[in-house]
Amino acid sequence: MVSSQKSMFSRMAVGSNVSEDTDDMYDDLFKKYRKVVFRRNDQKPASAEVDDDAENLAFAVALAKVASDVKAADIRVLFVKPPVYWTRFFIVATAFSRPQIDAIGTRIRDLAKKHHGRTATWDSKPNSWTLLDFGDVVVHIFLPQQRAFYNLEEFYGNAK
User: Fold this and answer.
1) Which residues touch 112 (CB under 8 Å, ≥6 apart)?
2) What φ, ψ does residue 138 adopt, rounded to 5°?
3) Residue 93 or 14, more confident
4) CB-based contacts of 130: which residues, under 8 Å, 6+ apart?
5) Minimal CA–CA distance to 92: which of 105, 111, 74?
6) Is the dihedral of CA 129, 71, 134, 137 positive or negative?
7) 85-112 pLDDT per residue, tens
8) Could you name the CATH architecture of 46-155?
């Protein structure tokens, strides 16, 4: 092992700032090869990203329609992919009682599983805010007071 690599690993072992060491390592590689030598293997071509966005938008709109069928109010579908790295779309909806939150969540989960083959993770306890996480689409169902308090639309104000 090269002595500079040994010193890098020893600095990391005693709690040095890992990001500084990683930056230094990449800077050294760039100086040596004069090009980027590291690429993530999980990146998709731009056309595949657009296809994924379109598919997930169709899924999000279908879920929003289900929420509307169960009389949810002020339903918003937000494209949050640019500012949020872990999902593409938020659906934000208002329900007016906990039973209505449960009904909306149940209908959304049923449609997602039956027609789209997707399952969500969610908190099954009765609550004033239910979140259904389908990966690329996340559904937030609020009672009016919680929606006003958390104000996700303003927090993610640069979402489309």
Assistant:
1) 59, 63, 118, 119, 120, 134
2) -120, 125
3) 93
4) 101, 102, 104, 105, 122, 123, 139, 140, 141
5) 74
6) negative
7) 788 899 999 999 999 999 999 999 999 9
8) 2-Layer Sandwich (3.30)
Residue pLDDT, tens place only, 26-72: 677 667 766 555 555 555 565 556 667 788 889 999 999 999 999 99
What pLDDT does 13 receive? 43
Residue whose pair of structure tokens reads 């997707």 in the numeric block: 118
- What does the DSSP assignment read for 11-69? HHHTT--HHHHHHHHHHHHHHHHSS-----TTPPPHHHHHHHHHHHHHHHHHHHHHHHH
| Confidence category of residue 118, pLDDT binned at 50, 70, 90 | confident
Structure tokens, 67 = 């929420």
3-state secondary structure (DSSP) of residue 156: coil
What are the Cα distances from residue 122, in Å, to 31, 86, 116? 47, 16, 17
Domain ranges of the chain: 3-33, 46-155
